[in-house]
Structure prediction request, 331 residues.
Amino acid sequence: MLSCMEMCVQLFLSVFKDLVGSEVTVELKDDLAVRGTLHAVDQFLNFKLVNVRVVDPDKHPHMFSVQNCFIRGSAVRYVQLPPNEVDVELLQDATRREARSS
Amino acid sequence: MASGLRIVTERVGDGAGQPVLDPDNGEELMHVQPGVSIVLGNRPPESPGTLYISTKQVVWLSDTDRAKGYAVDFVSLSLHAVSRDPDAYHSPCIYTQIETGAEELESEDSDSESDNILNLSKITEMRLVPSDPNQLDTLFAIFCECAELNPDPIEEGEDGHNWVFSADQLEDDGGEDDDSEWAIPENSSHSIGSNGNHDLAHSVVQLHINDQRFEDAEEMEQDDKNGHH
Prediction:
């Protein structure tokens, strides 16, 4: 039987697997937000994005637009998903179940 | 946990030398890239130097000053990218962000620290500028590989590293042994994402069935349904 943490990770991994190819915005714990096309996601919820640009260049003047970017899973605070491409109800249901089981 | 950038003063070997690694703990050298300058935060580039990428860390050693070197563990690199945008930086480089673990960081533009006193714990950005920009994609790929070798200690890797590049790549969810305990889901045609595979719905129903505490949850759901009617 999987630990609760492993189940949560699998849940999110499934969500992100479905979103490969979509535009996402990843907000890191240091407040940087980058937007790009989700190229790949792995079991540690590391993200590879392509065609990346910084969401708020005024806030982050040193920042960049890059072709490829690798984001460590542990550095991520939020991932903004395209609402049209996500079944929000089903996702909420799934996360509610996660919350109850923990 | 993330320690940030640190100074390296020890080397092995003659000449410019090499970094001290920890092979007893499995650390191996993955790549050596000569002709790399390092840019820490807003500071001017430091060169010439050689970049050493091991399975655990990135080390830059000055070619001319044996006492000068910097290192950072992969667990501390929250992001790395190939930067070719001249507006971001005048030279193509590998751009990295370093997680220092400090909650409230002072602005990097703050001049409260003299330029001569380098406070490495405040450095959150590092650029590695190779003299040969054609090496950038190789360096990026090696950084990715090594980052994947250094997940956070809490979560342990399972069978091996699996990147998913398309929704067609289906993985087994959970252990093979557990499959026999799970019933076949009713609504397996629903999926959360637009690429429409069954993984998530399957996982959700598996989660539901596998936990006995959901007996109570079901009663609550019924109450909810009644309430909402």
